[in-house]
Amino acid sequence: MKIGVKIWPDKVDYALKIAGHADFIEVMAKRGCDFSFLSEIDLPFVVHAEHGDLGINYADSAKLALSRESLGFAIQLADRLEARAIIVHHGYLDGTPNTKAENTLRFLKEVRDNRILIENILVKEKFNGIEAEHPFSTPEKMKFLMEQTGRGFCLDLSHAQASSAALGLDYMSMLEQFMRLKPRHFHACGGVEGEPKDMHLHLWEGNLNIGAFRRMLPKAAWVTLETPCDLEGQIRDIEIMRG
């Protein structure tokens, strides 16, 4: 198993410190940032494309040009870093006529890059104070999205738990269903069972069954930790995930 950490480009000093303890770095491809510090890190990379918190929505036809620019930047950064994967969020519906699930399908079909992996995200989330729905949050709908676009899958433990809570389902059962989609990458953090939100806690915080999740993983799994960026805490997270 390879265990990495998620880094935003403003965390330069921290990235250089935690790199000595991780197997790889997953970096957020935020446009307008300086990524030159990554040349000092002698590790493999994974790239995460911008998402809803940064104004990107693949389901919004009015933002098509912006989506293309954003994902294009992520692809260029992945080329530069020789990244093995590019993680994307599939977009959300906010009740406006421009946002439709079909727009996500169309957009992800047009981008021909086998490194792109679609991450499962929350059933509902707020953007700019507006509650929005993510249309492909369940295993069944993710399977449909993958089949229609030809893209691979990134399984996020915390998102699966939050989605199962929102739908009143058992989260371990949902994880098992997601595992049948043969994820090519994984995200993990701590959380609270039954809470319909992504909490990004350390692995020892909350009450998610991290051991059961770890036992589900293939031996060659690549797992990104999305836990708080404090050195001692993330070193402990890495040790827990290694088992």
Mean pLDDT: 96
Strand order of the largest sheet: 1-2-3-4-5-8-9-10
What is the chain-wise order of helices and strands? EHEEHEHEEEHEHHEHEH
CATH class value? Alpha Beta
The structural class is alpha/beta
Share of residues in strands: 15-25%
Weakly predicted, low-confidence segments: none
Apparent shape: globular
Structure description:
- The chain has 243 residues and is an alpha/beta fold.
- It has a single domain (2-242), classed as Divalent-metal-dependent TIM barrel enzymes (TIM Barrel).
- Helix content is 35%, strand content 18%.
- The strands form 2 sheets. Strands 1-2-3-4-5-8-9-10 form an 8-stranded parallel barrel, surrounded by 5 helices.
- Helix 7 links the parallel strand 9 (185-188) and strand 10 (222-225).
- Helix 5 (157-167) crosses helix 6.
- The termini are close together.
- The mean pLDDT is 96.
What are the main properties of this structure?
8 helices; alpha/beta; 243 residues; TIM Barrel; two-stranded antiparallel ribbon; globular; 18% strand; 10 strands
SSE layout and pairings?
Layout: E1 2-7, H1 12-18, E2 24-28, E3 45-48, H2 64-81, E4 86-88, H3 101-110, E5 116-119, E6 124-127, E7 130-133, H4 139-149, E8 152-156, H5 157-167, H6 171-179, E9 185-188, H7 210-216, E10 222-225, H8 231-242
Short description:
It contains 8 helices and 10 strands. With 243 residues, it is an alpha/beta fold.
